[in-house]
Design goal:
Layout (H helix, E strand, L loop, with lengths): L1 H32 L7 H9 L13 H18 L2 H22 L3 E4 L2 E4 H31 L2 H6 L5 H31 L5 H26 L5 H18 L11 H9 L1 H12 L5 H4 L2 H21 L5 H4 L1
Antiparallel strand pairs: 1-2
Length: about 325
């Protein structure tokens, strides 16, 4: 049955292609037989596509905003069509949330002085992990591969401004992490009864966007230091996994020794995790977001962005060696 349906679909596509080709040929013959006239965009569009409307403008003709939207769409499609990115960005966080809540969800811990079940603790923890994976690990690996394969060099040679290429990739990452946050929050509410107030949801949205931009800047900075695509994944894993265990992602902060807590506070993962955890125990925007955490994340973004602008290269390492 499967092969029969596949065969019928192939035949239908071949028939449709022949029919469209014949229609275009007839339109071209009719155009050739007509009297010569000045070029007309509407007539040309009608002959080629069967429509009287003007041809669709290119992304570049719509200005910087249209070009940026086109670039964001391109990066989103590239990410969706990447099986590894789909798994680690969407399915892996959901899988971890289900496993951790099934194994430890009935335990208890403290968040900002409030006693909660671990199923409440793991929702913002897994959300933190998904933001770091999408905005940091995903960008480091993809940028390293694109640079060493020569794709960045070819894109840099186009008339598109380099800042627009980077902005498009960063914005597509923001869209991805925002969608992932929405999926996790809906799953937490439906499956585990972990709901957030309107102010807390707004705080989560703000901190997810700020955290995504911060880790994207860090990713550009780190990718400029990697000389081969093979080294990208080990480096991201070596820098991510230890921080997840000392930043309140998998293990509650009160359960950690003070030395590890102080070390974790130096890095942005802890501050992203802390602000997201505040949102599950406080319903208002002001109580659900930490100004200190936002300042630290912004500082990391500015510092990493400046370093990336200094060290970032569009050329493969073999060309700059």
């Amino acid at each position: 049955m499967y092969f029969l349906i596949k065969y019928l679909i192939r035949k239908w596509r071949e028939h449709k292609a022949r029919r469209d080709g014949a229609a275009i040929g007839e339109a071209a013959d009719a155009l050739d037989d007509s009297e010569p006239a000045a070029p007309d965009t509407a007539r040309f569009s009608a002959a080629a596509g069967g429509s009287g409307h003007a041809a669709k403008r290119s992304a570049a003709s719509r200005g910087p905003v249209g070009l940026l939207a086109h670039q964001v769409r391109y990066d989103l499609l590239a990410s969706v069509r990447n099986p590894r990115a789909r798994f680690f960005t969407f399915f892996f966080p959901i899988l971890l949330l289900v496993v951790f809540n099934a194994a430890f969800g009935n335990g208890h811990t403290m968040i900002d002085g409030v006693r909660v079940k671990l199923k409440v603790f793991y929702v913002p923890g897994i959300l933190t992990m998904s933001v770091v994976v999408a905005a940091y690990a995903g960008l480091v690996i993809s940028m390293s591969a694109l640079r060493e394969s020569g794709v960045l060099k070819r894109r840099r040679a186009t008339p598109v401004p380099p800042a627009l290429l980077i902005a498009g990739q960063a914005l597509s990452t923001v869209v991805t992490t925002t969608l992932m946050a929405a999926v996790l929050l809906v799953l937490a509410k439906v499956a585990y009864g972990v709901g957030l107030g309107a102010g807390a949801i707004l705080a989560v949205g703000c901190i997810v966007v700020i955290g995504t931009i911060s880790f994207a800047c860090i990713a550009y900075a780190v990718s400029g230091l990697i000389g081969s695509p093979e080294a990208a994944q080990p480096i991201t894993q070596a820098t991510m996994f230890p921080l997840w265990f000392i930043s309140g992602v998998f293990i509650p902060i009160p359960n950690l020794p003070s030395v590890l807590r102080h070390i974790g506070d130096v890095f942005p993962v802890s501050h992203l995790s802390n602000s997201l955890h505040l949102a599950v125990v406080h319903g208002t925007f002001g109580a659900a977001i930490s100004v200190t955490d936002v300042i630290v994340l912004v500082a990391w973004a500015l510092g990493a962005g400046a370093f990336a602008a200094w060290r970032f290269s569009w050329l493969p390492s073999t060309a700059t060696a």
